[in-house]
């Protein structure tokens, strides 16, 4: 698996506080990757390090084969849309496109103007008078017209209403299909990740808890419900992610590559959100499986 982003023992410290520490991560190239995790997991810090907006305190990070922001050629490889979808309020859309052309040697002005036209935006309109959804679309246009190898989006729809969020995600999926980008999308909304991404990484306290193809992860996780019992008695191939008990009943979320044959269990399928939440509630230092089939990363 070739990696578009690779971090080893990566850390970022602000004075006495570590925002990211001992992070090991491989992000596969040519995929649309959803990065999810609780607040404080280090997602935004990781993406800011990947874009070159921050420099690491410890460890190493490599993006598109080089050190982030190490020179003009490296900067041109990465497009970045931050959480607040930054635009300049006093500048018109035309001004933004001219600025993009001046700053980016690979700028595709035809792509940019075509997207603005399809969005129905007025080139003379100042960014400060656009709606939140329109500003997000402008920021996405600037990121795409740069023609990057990797497009990084850090919570790009967090402040948008449901309709604007759906339109943004739909436009993103169409752009990815058209331009064959590698994408890393950070989001708190698993529904957005499930809609737009084909690969997911769950980050908790700087540690990758699980990573893999969404379809594979959904196929390999199940909920088992049955009479109360000790999870340690399960067959070796059934890995318990979470367990809960009542006086008479045990409910387990397990990961397994084989069918569950024990008739005392009721086996139920799980959605991606159930799986993500289960890994988010585990201790960050819980033992993680490293089987290649699930691409669980250390």
From TrEMBL:
Q: Name one GO molecular function term.
A: ATP binding
UniProt keyword annotations, A-Z: ATP-binding, Nucleotide-binding, Transport
Which part of the chain is the ABC transporter domain? 5-230
Note the Pfam families from the entry.
ABC_tran (PF00005)
| InterPro entries per UniProt | AAA+_ATPase, ABC_transporter-like_ATP-bd, ABC_Transporter_VariousFunc, P-loop_NTPase
Tell me where on the tree of life, at the top rank, the source sits: Bacteria
| Protein's name in the database | ABC transporter ATP-binding protein
Please tell me the species this chain comes from.
Streptomyces ferrugineus
What taxonomic ancestry is recorded?
A: Bacteria, Bacillati, Actinomycetota, Actinomycetes, Kitasatosporales
């Amino acid at each position: 698996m070739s990696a578009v982003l690779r971090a080893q023992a990566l850390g970022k410290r602000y004075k006495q506080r570590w925002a990211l520490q001992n992070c090991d991560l491989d992000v596969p190239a040519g995929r649309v990757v959803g990065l999810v995790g609780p607040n404080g997991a280090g997602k935004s810090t990781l993406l800011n390090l990947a874009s070159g907006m921050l420099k690491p305190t410890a460890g190493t990070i490599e993006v598109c084969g080089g050190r982030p922001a190490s020179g003009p050629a490296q900067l041109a490889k990465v497009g970045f849309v931050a959480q607040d979808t930054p635009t300049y309020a006093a500048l018109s859309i035309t001004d933004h496109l001219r600025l993009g052309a001046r700053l980016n040697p690979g700028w595709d002005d035809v792509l940019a103007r075509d997207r603005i036209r399809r969005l129905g935006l007025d080139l003379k309109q100042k960014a400060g008078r656009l709606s939140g959804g329109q500003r997000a679309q402008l920021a996405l246009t600037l990121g795409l017209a740069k023609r990057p190898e990797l497009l990084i989006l850090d919570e790009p729809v967090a402040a948008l209403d449901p309709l604007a969020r759906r339109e943004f995600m739909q436009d993103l999926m169409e752009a990815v299909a058209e331009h064959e980008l590698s994408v890393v999308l950070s989001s708190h909304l698993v529904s957005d990740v499930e809609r737009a991404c084909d690969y997911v990484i769950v980050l908790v306290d700087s540690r990758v808890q699980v990573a893999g193809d969404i379809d594979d992860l959904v196929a390999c996780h199940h909920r088992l419900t049955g009479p109360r019992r000790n999870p340690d008695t399960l067959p070796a191939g059934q890995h318990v992610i979470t367990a809960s008990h009542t006086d008479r009943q045990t409910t387990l979320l397990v990961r397994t590559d084989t069918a569950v044959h024990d008739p005392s269990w009721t086996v139920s399928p799980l959605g991606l959100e159930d799986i993500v939440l289960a890994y988010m509630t585990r201790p960050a230092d819980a033992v993680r499986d490293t089987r290649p089939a699930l691409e669980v990363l250390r």
